[in-house]
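4.2 Preliminary Data

To establish feasibility before requesting continued support, the project team ran the inverse folding procedure on a target of 298 residues. The structure was first converted into the token representation described in Section 3, and no sequence information of any kind was made available to the design step. The complete token record follows.
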């Protein structure tokens, strides 16, 4: 499966405090994805060194954990799993993100389209409905080696075109939220521990015309990184998803990753994911997986 992914990055300055950044994902499993991250970043707005604004395409969980910077091949399933027919997940959206920091506090707030960064519709519109989704994160870093935070995302989706099944011609709504705490601890450059827990509820994820069947769910990820030396890094990642209303979404896995840096731009990885989810009617067999690969850039 080599190459699995290939990306072309571009970045530069428009002014001293204005940066553009993006990348083109032109091969992943034979699929041409196109632009994912693509934004303008305005630093020191109105001569305020604590105020920044980002506009364009980005991931709504970047204020907590940047998926593109993770050290494992295994993804953060809390962000990529969808619980609704419009296929919403906590990854790429189009919108605006504002951040402000003062002392031990930092606040992020944003508004996004809510339906991802897919192709436009027949009317040339990139938004599936008129409501724009707000989200926010607040961080308290009382010490230099650790922080705690809280995250909130709210959506009101009534798309005409759905990712699966018939169209939503009656403009039915799915009101949903994602909210929960996160923590980051890094007492030294050698190791760090970080994680997040999110609770969620979707009022009508199937967009049914009868009595809505809400889905309540929660999930988490916890990651431990250990940098044994400049050349060797080890990672343990735990992914958990739980929904009593839709047990097909349940996940419980542990991933171990060993990475060796031959050069600063060339590394090899060995990774194994163990499925510790109990077998059931919705999880008939355990699925383990592993990967051995090379990652390089120039």
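Position-by-position output of the design step:
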């Amino acid at each position: 499966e080599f190459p699995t992914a290939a990306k072309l990055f571009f970045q530069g300055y428009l002014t001293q405090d204005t940066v553009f950044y993006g990348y083109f994902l032109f091969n992943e499993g034979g699929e041409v994805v196109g632009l994912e991250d693509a934004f303008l970043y305005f630093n020191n707005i109105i001569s305020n060194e604590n105020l920044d604004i980002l506009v364009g395409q980005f991931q709504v969980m970047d204020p907590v954990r940047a998926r593109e910077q993770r050290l494992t091949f295994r993804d953060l399933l809390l962000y990529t799993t969808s619980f609704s027919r419009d296929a919403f997940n906590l990854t790429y959206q189009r919108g605006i993100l504002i951040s402000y920091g003062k002392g031990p506090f930092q606040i992020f707030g944003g508004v996004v389209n809510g339906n991802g960064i897919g192709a436009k519709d027949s009317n040339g519109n990139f938004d599936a409905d008129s409501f724009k989704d707000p989200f926010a994160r607040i961080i308290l870093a009382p010490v230099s080696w650790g922080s705690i935070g809280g995250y909130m995302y709210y959506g009101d989706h009534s798309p005409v075109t759905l990712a699966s099944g018939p169209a939503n011609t009656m403009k039915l709504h799915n009101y949903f939220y994602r909210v929960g705490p996160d923590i980051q601890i890094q007492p030294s450059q050698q190791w760090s521990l970080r994680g997040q827990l999110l609770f969620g509820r979707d009022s009508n994820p199937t967009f049914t015309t009868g009595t809505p069947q809400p889905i309540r769910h929660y999930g988490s990820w916890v990651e431990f990184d250990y940098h044994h030396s400049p050349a060797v890094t080890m990672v343990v990642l735990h992914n958990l998803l739980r929904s009593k209303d839709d047990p097909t979404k349940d996940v419980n896995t542990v991933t171990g990753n060993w990475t060796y840096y031959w050069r600063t731009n060339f590394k090899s990885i060995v990774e194994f994911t163990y499925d510790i989810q109990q077998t059931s009617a919705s999880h008939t067999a355990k699925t383990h997986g592993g990967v051995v690969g090379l990652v390089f850039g120039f």
